[in-house]
């Protein structure tokens, strides 16, 4: 089509989010010669600190956390061979309802238009063909994930540049298998159920438009996640070992929400219709 290489941009909330839901596509498309741009919106300062100190506990020093997580993010990008890493460096807002939601500089406390302008500038610079982010609930309700969704959709609207936009999702059929494996390694994983505050996680399989096989890149995805081992929430995945992890996480799924190519769905490639 053109001589310019295809470009994928993934917009994530925290250092480590790139690994779980898009580590496979970032690694796979980089290996295929696609330019990959990771935008990480926050500094991850509400994560676990060095030595596993939890946010809010004595000795939790957000500055030390930020520094550690910056180095982890660089290592993860190295593992996934991300071409360009861009960090917006907003303050991590913490979980919904935490005082950090309202802190000066917190991502959740930043007007959508302001952050969207910065992202739009990056979209104009890199001209991604495909942009990936979260759904309107940020997949599981974290304020920074919701905000990442909002600024991405506003920046896409403003620039009109990406030919395709996707939200990450998980097929409901995968949850049962996921629950069984988690039990094996001693992690309680309740079946997702919708509540008043929280829509159910994931989507029925027939609403998923895009299934990308990334099982050939399980080693890189595992290494990317391992780079963030300081974050307790991720360690349980690592307990699976690389082989089981790839079995469980080797298919990345998306719902296509913007498309100018007319590629038929279901599709198995984020760049279907663009090659
Ligand atoms: Zn996150």
TrEMBL record:
Entry keyword Nucleotide-binding: no
Which keywords belong to this entry? Zinc
Q: Which InterPro entries match?
A: GlcNAc_PI_deacetylase-related, LmbE-like_dom_sf
- Keyword Zinc on entry: yes
Name the chain's protein.
Answer: GlcNAc-PI de-N-acetylase
Report the source organism. Micromonospora aurantiaca (nom. illeg.)
């Amino acid at each position: 089509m053109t001589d310019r290489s295809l470009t994928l941009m993934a917009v994530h909330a925290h250092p480590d989010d790139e690994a779980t839901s898009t580590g496979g596509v970032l690694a796979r498309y980089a290996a295929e010669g696609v330019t990959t741009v990771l935008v990480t919106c926050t500094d991850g300062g509400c994560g676990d600190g060095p030595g596993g100190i939890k946010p809010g506990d004595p000795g939790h020093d957000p500055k030390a956390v930020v520094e550690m997580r910056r180095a982890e993010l660089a290592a993860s990008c190295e593992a996934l061979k991300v071409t360009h890493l861009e960090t917006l460096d907003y303050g991590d807002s913490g979980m919904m309802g935490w005082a950090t939601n309202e802190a000066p500089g917190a991502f959740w406390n930043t007007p959508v238009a302001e952050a969207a302008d910065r992202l739009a500038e990056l979209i104009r610079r890199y001209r991604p063909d495909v942009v990936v982010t979260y759904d309107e609930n940020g997949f599981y309700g974290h304020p920074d994930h919701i905000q990442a969704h909002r600024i991405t959709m506003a920046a896409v609207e403003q620039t009109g540049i990406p030919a395709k936009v996707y939200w990450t999702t998980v097929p409901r059929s995968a949850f049962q298998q996921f629950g069984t494996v988690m039990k094996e390694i001693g992690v309680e994983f309740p079946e997702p159920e919708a509540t008043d505050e929280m829509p159910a996680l994931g989507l029925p399989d027939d609403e998923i438009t895009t299934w990308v096989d990334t099982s050939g890149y399980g080693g890189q995805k595992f290494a990317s996640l391992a780079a963030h081992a300081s974050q307790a929430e991720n360690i349980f995945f690592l307990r699976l070992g690389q082989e089981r992890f790839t079995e469980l996480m080797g298919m990345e799924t998306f719902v296509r929400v913007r498309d100018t190519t007319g590629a038929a769905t279901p599709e198995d490639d984020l760049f279907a219709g663009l090659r």
